[in-house]
């Protein structure tokens, strides 16, 4: 269904406004897509978008949360800042989840929010909210524009701040009278000076020497690769480095793809639902080299038992992450790529640690990931393996948070960087589907699969409209267990099976729902059906919603219970 | 441990809020904070007195402050050779006959009486927090009606001796 909006007036006045400056500044930054939703305080900006519609694309979401998660997906795939636009008050507050999500997962965003006119700020005006106050704790930086001539400079600063150093979201709050203000000058000063912002990217040579020295002495070294490797585009260097010295690598949840999951030196993901081999390697190692991971609690488990005998080297572009959670012996504040390049310049010998690699090989062999397979019903882990197989492991996969996310992380072995889009730090339900839209817009030729839970999908499914509207062939695979799986799992394990409000008594008919958006929908309940249908679904040129009914009682294993150490995993073996 | 932290900041709207908000959400307790312009236009200086658990927490505090775009420099000057001062205004209950007694008490503190009314006396004192504290304690028995303190402000001494200044036993 397509609705053609007819403009009320055919001639548009030729005067330039603050909003036009905004659009020009975005074009200067190379922005192609705005993820947004209009409203009163941004009407002047939308008018400018109307004027510039041949030069810049605006994607209209159906909820501001959808627009910002899509911008996050876009940023994750392209490495470029995602640009979001929403109106004042409720428009801006609907973005909060996405801003917080981008902050904790270090995704570059430039978020524009409308604001009431300067003359009424602070009077509780219609649709007024203190966006600067609300977003200060969850942004890398934020601005409220006070003079129209500052706008081009602020936008330039914002893109610089969002995309350099440790990336993050920057909010620019624009009062309506500023975007509506007529400007007659040709151009404004855009040179900026940020004396308080100088991210350091070059590693300190002394610390690099210390690390080299520790590497030569290590008997049980392990590398932890985090999302910093992806942000720094350092995967190739990492592979080169570990292949030269044969050092085993584990990744964080967000670092998946930074090192090929099918590589002989890969131990798989570490952390709460990481592999036995990866977690035991972190527990037993004598040298831990962390490239761009922030030692999140879901990775470390109880800090007392985290790498207890290891010398810890931590390479991070954000100095505040070094020593925050884990005592660090070799701190290296740098861009990961530059640090690894520096290490590659050093030629040194490492004692080839056969015993250590044998031990890890043995662990891999004896304690692989496992699940209960049945012949008829679909177990969720099997489902992910099938998706992996049918897509040759080459799809861009997005997820929400919870069981399906962990299974996707465990069983969709990512071999390339920037193919994995998930909400790690904030753990945001409803993230996966809109993020897939952003990913597909960023990579129109790629296969994009949104693996979502039945709970999370219901939080942002209104964005289905966009698939048809924009002709995006996103494949939505609902891992439908009729429950909030991870909540149910914790209630089973830690609350004596008291499933309080975690089972859905009623579910929508997702097939009919898809149909109502003119999208192909199907319900799959058996393994046989799935094997037949899946390759066809993935090859289908348009979007598809696949409602896969999976075993409700499956749990994610192995698991480190809260408060436990890395070595105290449960469910290591059937 | 109690630390004196100074932060040089750009004098932009909301910068104080950024600092206090940051400390609050990372669970640091601010004992006092004072802000004012410096010799450079557009640059302000904040002096914070904070209570932190250990060195690691302290390091986090300075690193997190340093990450703020509007903050130019953060220093922990607690163990450096510094001059630190605070100002307090103390309104003491005082009828006619007690006035001279109070004046005698405050004299060695180089404090001054800045306001007198029928039943009270306003005293102004400047100095290190310990000295201010000492005077307040001496005046407490007379009945303190109102008390206002600015919080500490501090900077490094012009001559920086190798060893930190020894704690002074003089009230001055």
Briefly summarize what is shown.
With 574 residues, chain A is an alpha/beta fold. Chain A folds into 3 domains: 16-183, Rossmann fold (3-Layer(aba) Sandwich), CATH 3.40.50; 205-366, Rossmann fold; 380-549, Thiamin diphosphate (ThDP)-binding fold, Pyr/PP domains (Rossmann fold, 3-Layer(aba) Sandwich). Chain A is globular, with a radius of gyration of 25 Å.
Describe this structure in words.
With 574 residues, chain A is of the alpha/beta class. Chain A has three domains: 168 residues, Thiamin diphosphate (ThDP)-binding fold, Pyr/PP domains (Rossmann fold, 3-Layer(aba) Sandwich), CATH 3.40.50.970; 162 residues, 3-Layer(aba) Sandwich (Rossmann fold), CATH 3.40.50.1220; 170 residues, Rossmann fold. Chain A contains 23 helices and 20 strands. In chain A, strand 6, helix 7 and strand 7 form a beta-alpha-beta unit. The longest helix of chain A has 15 residues. Chain A is globular and about 75 Å long. About 1% of the residues of chain A have low confidence. Helices cover 25% and strands 40% of the residues of chain B. Chain B has two domains: 75 residues, ACT domain (Alpha-Beta Plaits, 2-Layer Sandwich); 73 residues, ACT-like. Chain A, domain 2 (Alpha-Beta Plaits). The model of chain B has no long low-confidence stretch (mean pLDDT 91). By secondary structure, chain B is α+β, with helices and mostly antiparallel strands. In chain B, a hairpin with a 5-residue loop joins strand 2 and strand 3. The longest helix of chain B has 13 residues. In chain B, strands 5, 6, 7, 8 and 9 form a five-stranded antiparallel sheet that branches. At the A-B interface, loops of A face helix 1 and helix 2 of B. Chain B: GO terms for molecular function: acetolactate synthase activity; acetolactate synthase regulator activity. Chain B: It catalyses: 2 pyruvate + H(+) = (2S)-2-acetolactate + CO2. Chain B: Its EC number is 2.2.1.6.
